[in-house]
């Protein structure tokens, strides 16, 4: 996997952010087993609770395109100097997609000069998923 290519895709996605309230442009990029990269950016709303996170937008785009597994890696970037991580909601949304292919994707939490590498299962231990409904 070319981590730098995935990070650059996330940074490019952040340029399309609609974040007039927080001025915190976030980009996400999802890498699938076939090499496809799907991106998303955050979209804020004057009713703050209706904002969409970059990771959720990327997952929605991937699902709309029929992707139901094969998620290998995720890159998340933002304007902060320190690496940022997906929020709790996004961890859950990523977990649903990863579970469809029984993968535990690498999550690249990207900052200005540093990248944390962690698996999704480490970010969301004991995750709630489809098996929890049985």
Q: In terms of topology, how is this protein built?
A:
Layout: H1 3-14, E1 27-32, E2 37-41, H2 54-64, E3 71-77, H3 88-100, E4 106-110, E5 115-119, H4 120-123
Helix pairs in contact: 2-3
Question: Could you characterize what this model shows?
Answer:
This protein has 134 residues and is an alpha+beta fold. Helices cover 30% and strands 21% of the residues. It is built from four helices and five strands; from the N terminus they run H-E-E-H-E-H-E-E-H. It has helices at 3-14, 54-64, 88-100, 120-123, and strands at residues 27-32, 37-41, 71-77, 106-110, 115-119. A five-stranded mixed beta sheet has the order 2-1-3-4-5. Helix 3 links the parallel strand 3 (71-77) and strand 4. Helix 2 runs parallel beside helix 3. The chain is globular. The model has no long low-confidence stretch (mean pLDDT 96).
- How many distinct helices? 4
Approximate helicity band: 25-40%
Percent of residues in β-strands: 15-25%
What is the radius of gyration? 14 Å
Taken in chain order, the helices and strands follow as: HEEHEHEEH
Distance between the termini: 35 Å
Spatial strand sequence of the major β-sheet: 2-1-3-4-5
Detail the poorly predicted runs. Answer: none
The major pleated sheet works out as: 5 strands, mixed
Which structural category do the helix and sheet elements fall into?
alpha+beta
> What is the tally of beta strands?
5
What is the mean pLDDT? 96
> Which word captures the global form?
globular
């Amino acid at each position: 996997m070319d981590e730098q290519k995935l990070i650059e895709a996330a940074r490019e996605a952040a340029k399309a952010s609609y974040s007039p309230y927080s001025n915190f442009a976030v980009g996400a990029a999802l890498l699938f087993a076939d090499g496809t990269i799907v991106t998303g950016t955050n979209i804020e709303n004057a009713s703050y609770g209706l904002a969409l996170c970059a990771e959720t937008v990327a997952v929605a785009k991937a699902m709309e395109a029929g992707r139901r597994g094969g998620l290998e890696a995720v890159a998340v970037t933002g304007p902060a100097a320190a690496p940022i991580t997906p929020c709790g909601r996004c961890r859950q949304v990523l977990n649903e997609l990863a579970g469809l292919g029984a993968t535990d994707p690498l999550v690249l939490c990207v900052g200005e000069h540093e990248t944390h590498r962690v698996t999704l299962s480490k970010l969301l231990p004991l995750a709630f998923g489809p098996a929890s409904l049985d």
